[in-house]
Amino acid sequence: QSVVIDSGSSFCLTHCKEDFIGPIKRSRIKSLKTVKDSISVEGEGLVQWIARDMNGNKICIKIHVLYVPQGHIRLFSTQIWLDTALAGSCYIMHKHVSTIRTGEGAELIAPYHPSNNLPTLFINNEQTGGDINITEGIIPNSSDVFSSVAGETNQNLTASQKELLIWHWKLAHIGFQWLQTLMASPSGNPK
């Protein structure tokens, strides 16, 4: 089980109801916009993710997230976490890994996943009792995501959606709405 770390995300989210350690309450956010359309938010609440790294270090992350069953992803926003974490907590990006350091001094090294080049936490939730498989996310040797999702053979996205996604990647996962505004502006066009 994995959680994608997104330092530019405004929300944490999960598609797994079993991640929640308390009630799922109604959310003020009703939907999230994606590249292609929007998906509904079914609620929000507190989750607990127990993450372990390649060195056996373990941290427990309790954080408020959106419940998005159609999202098919767990997303950890470092911005949201740092807003609520103890003083001294930090998130550091390196070339092939990212480091999460808690205010208590615990440290976790998150590798970049080979299929999407995003930093990834590997979790074992007490509720699911599953084992952590950290071998699937060992430091990547390629970025196949550019040749698959944005490739000519992908029929699920239009050419303009693929171009938007490529610019999103190139500009450190900038928000789609802001990027579309930037691209529409003659003076701000990133091309």
Structure description:
The chain is an alpha+beta fold. It is globular, with a radius of gyration of 17 Å. Strand 3 and strand 4 form a beta hairpin.
Cα-atom radius of gyration: 17 Å
Q: Report the sheet with the most strands, covering strand number, pairing sense and barrel closure.
A: 3 strands, mixed
Q: What is the percent of helical residues? A: 10-25%
Q: What does the overall shape look like?
A: globular
Distance between the termini: 37 Å
Strand composition percent: 25-35%
- The number of helical segments is 4
Average of the residue pLDDT scores: 80
Strand order of the largest sheet: 7-1-11
Low-confidence stretches: 126-147
Order of helices and strands: EEEEEEEHEEEEHHH
Give the tally of β-strands. Answer: 11
Structural class: alpha+beta
Feature tags:
single chain, 191 residues, alpha+beta, three-stranded mixed sheet, 4 helices, 17% helix, globular
Write the layout of secondary structure elements.
Elements (H helix, E strand, L loop, with lengths): L1 E5 L6 E2 L16 E3 L4 E3 L2 E10 L5 E10 L7 E3 H7 L5 E4 L3 E5 L5 E5 L8 E3 L22 H4 L10 H12 L5 H9 L7
Parallel strand pairs: 1-7, 2-6
Antiparallel strand pairs: 1-11, 3-4, 5-6, 8-9, 9-10
